[in-house]
């Protein structure tokens, strides 16, 4: 899009603003309604990703930036997912070791 | 042959492919104001800081043998005879989103050089941000009175306290710094610094409404982090 200028219609801001309210209300409703396990986590993740996406894309103007800039910002963040994956396994390993240790020592 | 240099225009190639723009003779941040590029680089690094906090929270929560406290109950509020789960947190979330909306509009009016609208919206953002910090202070006070400490709490796994104070504390610090800068920027907007191009106190660079967009990036980032904290810490 046009470089140096960021002029967008008012409508899109109000649309995203409303959407963020609605999505937040939905996330709160997930807790209120008392969904459990996978339904709960799935819905929380869905609303979270949608909210984060709209904030980044519209409010932070990422949608109108050039692809090389978007990539320079978003690609490094994918390393986080690798770290999450590693630590997820690490934490389960720790839990197993703890369970074994506490079972043997009886504490 | 004797053409003056003034007629030579630097042509920025449009719509190059992604790999070509990242190639050695090109720049990825072409045409981006330096302040904005620096803010983005800071925000990416800050993303790593917050994600490390959230990852440590995940690691601690998954590996603990004791029951993790139920945030719905811990952060519930009594309204009359009812115990409303997560009420304060929900209000804080809506306030932060409201402030994000006013900030986005402030950026828009800034680019339209609408000084008054931009200033009032910036002020509103600062007020919402300050009220968010106030509610967080209330939340901290309530939990500390109930006996939550970084090393123990009456609800369950002792790690809960340290994670809570670290993550919300760090986020609250970001909001507080944001509010301080919003107030400074609001003053600059109302004084007309961005219209007259007054030179900055520290940088001695000409002021420009781009500063509002950079401020906006930071503020939206604070809201963005809250989205993740709200989902992972309060709702999970």
Report the end-to-end length of chain A measured between terminal Cα atoms: 64 Å
Radius of gyration of chain A: 21 Å
Instruction: Report the oligomer.
Output: heterodimer
Report the top-level CATH class of chain B. Answer: Mainly Alpha
Helical amount among residues of chain B, as a percent range?
55-70%
By secondary-structure content and strand pairing, the structural class of chain A works out as: mainly alpha
Give the overall form of chain A. Answer: flat
Strand content of chain A: under 5%
> If classified by CATH, what would the architecture of chain B be?
Up-down Bundle
The largest chain-to-chain contact, stated as pair and per-chain residue counts, equals: A-B, 55 and 57 residues
Broad structural category of chain B: mainly alpha
- Element pattern of chain B in H and E: HHHEEHHHHH
| Biggest sheet: strand arrangement of chain B | 1-2
The CATH homologous superfamily of chain B corresponds to Cytochrome c oxidase, subunit III, four-helix bundle
Unreliable runs of chain A: none
Question: According to CATH, what is the topology of chain B?
Answer: Four Helix Bundle (Hemerythrin (Met), subunit A)
How do the SSEs of chain A run, as a string of H and E?
HHH
Strand content of chain B: under 5%
């Amino acid at each position: 899009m046009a470089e140096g200028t960021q002029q967008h219609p008012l409508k899109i801001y109000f649309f995203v603003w409303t959407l963020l309210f609605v999505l937040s209300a939905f996330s709160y409703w997930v807790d209120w309604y008392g969904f459990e396990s996978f339904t709960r986590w799935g819905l929380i993740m869905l609303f979270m990703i949608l909210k984060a996406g709209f904030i980044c894309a519209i409010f932070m103007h990422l949608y109108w930036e050039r692809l090389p800039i978007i990539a320079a910002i978003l690609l490094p963040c994918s390393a986080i997912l690798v770290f999450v994956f590693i630590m997820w396994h690490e934490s389960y390993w720790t839990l197993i070791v703890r369970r074994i240790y506490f079972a043997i020592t009886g504490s | 042959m004797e053409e003056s240099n003034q007629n030579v225009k630097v042509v920025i190639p449009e719509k190059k492919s992604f790999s070509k723009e990242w190639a050695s003779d090109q720049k990825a941040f072409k045409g981006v104001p330096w302040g904005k590029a620096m803010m983005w680089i800071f925000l990416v690094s800050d993303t790593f800081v917050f994600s490390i906090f959230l990852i440590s929270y995940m690691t601690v929560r998954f590996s603990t043998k004791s029951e993790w406290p139920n945030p719905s109950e811990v952060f519930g509020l009594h309204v009359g005879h009812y115990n409303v789960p997560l009420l304060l947190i929900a209000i804080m979330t809506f306030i932060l989103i409201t402030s994000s909306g006013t900030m986005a509009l402030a950026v828009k009016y800034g680019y339209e050089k609408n000084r008054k609208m931009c200033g009032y919206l910036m002020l509103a953002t600062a007020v919402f941000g300050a009220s968010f910090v106030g509610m967080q202070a209330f939340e901290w006070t309530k939990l500390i009175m109930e006996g939550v400490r970084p090393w123990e709490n009456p609800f369950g796994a002792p790690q809960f306290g340290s994670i809570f104070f670290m993550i919300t504390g760090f986020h609250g610090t970001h909001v507080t710094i944001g509010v301080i800068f919003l107030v400074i920027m609001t003053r600059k907007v109302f004084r007309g610094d961005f219209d007259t191009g007054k030179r900055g106190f520290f940088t001695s660079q000409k002021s420009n409404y781009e500063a509002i967009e950079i401020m906006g990036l930071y503020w939206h980032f604070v809201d963005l982090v809250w989205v993740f904290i709200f989902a992972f810490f309060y709702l999970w």
